[in-house]
Design a protein that fits this description.
disordered N terminus; 15 strands; disordered C terminus; 47% helix
Length: 536
């Protein structure tokens, strides 16, 4: 593919901000434009195929491991690339938005890996997106600091001993409306990937690491192949050896769950592992099969990792990864320490139990959303690993999971409790209000909520209404109650906008696939207000 064939002009429609010129350089924009020109149309076709597949499954087509790729699953010898520098030991990872304070907290947390999340933990205001890239650049250069309005300083505690940085770009379904190539918005995934790769890939290599990524929302092997081709093109354009990029894919959709090996196969020279995405998996399950009574689920708080279908996903993930030499990373613990001894003891006990279960199942590490959980997660995996960097030698040949096991909700199905209905409404509204304010990660009810949390909360309300286990009048009454409570607690909240998102994305007959395109197009603020302004 010639460089001239990739050239596409990129126009910046967003307002100029502090130090934006350091990120939005002509060369960086040209690089992003080349990627958009090369892969934009293919992305559109894959999104059409997503919709076609969803319709087929909704109409009754079986979900199964693809027969056409059975040779990939049966071939015993292929492996992903060996672990890259900084990714051999991943026993504890911390994930969060790349705002300045959170970035410093994550770098000082003691985690082995920091996942800078543009996908679910970042509200995509223009300042958040460009500012996040600036924070990554400053972090890579080890020059990042921050002082709160109250005068509290944040600095790197040990600049020479930082976690390995992994960037999570937005999903293929989103566009960045502040950048246009040939008159069309640029795919958000290519913006997040391209700007970081252009500015930081060489710097990371020179520092003994590399450009590493965590890929969200993939639904099949073709979407993994698209990412692999993006990696190849980006490396070629900047003269970086092929295979330098490494990527971990979160298994967050039911269609990706039956193509784990195929996804790793597509990413072979760039593959680093798979991760468990619990909230998104539930979200995908309800989006696809929520119209069926045999998939009626109670509130998410009752759907723990011991649920048979979620445990089946976890066991298949470990077996698949270790069969192919890839790391298996557990789900994210979302608990937020409150400072209240009794509450924290209960929260920490729940996290410990969950992480012990993952370590015993064979996971090589796990994720947390708060620095206060890093020591606990590390302690659990230290005990199981016993001096080893991972447990790739545990091949889990004892695991035999069918496609039906991945959807087996019968033993955990049922209607919600009244408290569960109210909680989902409160969480969805609280998150929508914070997201509209420019916050993508916010503490709600003792848990760190992100876009995936809001998605599962809203689709569960939709499902319960559809099956009439909750009536519309009750939901509207609770909606009024929770809006009033939200307004009393946070006077800054745009209650009308939050209600509008809830009604359009939860009360509609046809379920919108994601809330973020609707909310972003209509209401999202264009300037970042700071995480200290939000709930929690």
């Amino acid at each position: 593919m010639s460089s001239s064939a990739l050239a596409h002009r990129v126009d910046v429609l967003g307002p100029s901000g502090h130090r934006h010129d350091e990120i939005l350089t002509p060369a960086a924009l040209d690089f992003v434009g080349r990627l958009a020109g090369a892969f934009g149309e293919r992305r559109k076709e894959l999104l059409k195929e997503r919709r076609r597949q969803a319709l087929r499954l909704a109409a009754g087509a079986p979900l199964d491991f693809p027969m056409v790729t059975s040779s990939v699953r049966e071939e015993p010898d292929w492996r992903v690339a060996p672990p890259a520098p900084g990714l051999t030991d991943r026993r504890v990872e911390i994930a969060g938005p790349p705002d300045r304070r959170t970035t410093i907290d994550a770098l000082n947390s003691g985690a082995r890996v920091w996942v800078a999340d543009f996908a679910d933990a970042t509200a995509p205001t223009w300042d958040n997106i460009v500012g996040g890239q600036l924070n990554l650049l400053d972090a890579v250069e080890r020059r990042i600091d921050f002082t709160t309005p109250e005068g509290t300083p944040y600095r790197l505690a040990e600049p020479d001993r930082l976690p390995t940085l992994m960037v999570r770009p937005r999903g293929w379904h989103l566009t960045e409306d502040h950048l246009e190539a040939d008159g069309e918005p640029v795919p958000a995934a290519l913006v997040d990937f391209g700007l970081y790769f252009f500015h930081c890939a060489r710097r990371q290599i020179d520092a003994g690491r590399g450009p590493y990524f965590s890929l969200p929302k993939l639904e099949n092997r073709y979407e993994a192949r698209l990412w692999n081709d993006v990696f190849v093109a980006a490396q070629d354009l900047l003269g970086i050896p092929r295979g330098t990029v490494r990527a971990t894919v979160l298994i967050e959709t039911i269609t990706a769950a039956v193509q784990m090996e195929e996804i790793l196969h597509e990413l072979r020279e760039h593959g680093a592992g798979l991760g468990a995405g619990r909230c998104d998996y539930l979200f995908s399950l309800i989006k696809t099969f929520g119209h069926r009574t045999d998939f009626l689920l109670p509130e998410r708080a009752r759907l723990t990792t011991t649920a048979p279908f979620l445990h089946a996903v976890a066991e298949l993930l470990v077996r698949t990864c270790h069969k192919r030499g890839a790391h298996a990373i557990g789900g994210t613990a979302a608990q937020v320490p409150s400072g209240e001894p009794d509450a924290d003891r209960a929260a920490f006990a729940a996290v410990r139990l969950d992480k012990e279960r993952e370590a015993e199942d064979g996971f090589d590490g796990s994720r947390v959303a708060h620095p206060g959980l890093v020591p606990l997660c590390r302690e659990v995996f230290d005990a199981v690993l016993d001096g080893r960097p991972h447990q790739l030698d545990r091949t889990r040949d004892d695991v035999a999971v069918t496609a039906a096991d991945l959807l087996s909700t019968r033993r955990v199905g049922g209607p919600p409790t009244p408290e569960g209905v109210r909680s989902n409404i409160a969480v969805a509204l609280g998150y929508f209000a914070a997201w509209l304010r420019g916050q993508g990660a916010v503490a709600l009810d003792g848990l760190m909520a992100d876009a995936a949390t809001a998605e599962i909360a809203r689709v569960q309300i939709w499902q319960w209404l559809r099956h009439r286990v909750v009536d519309r009048e009750t939901v509207l009454r609770l909606l009024d109650d929770e809006l009033a409570a939200l307004g009393a607690a946070y006077p800054w909240a745009d209650l009308d906008a939050a209600r509008g998102i809830f009604e359009r994305c939860t009360l509609a007959v046809e379920l919108p696939q994601f809330f973020t395109p609707d909310a972003g197009a209509r209401h999202l603020v264009r300037s970042h207000r700071g995480t200290q302004d939000g709930p929690g």
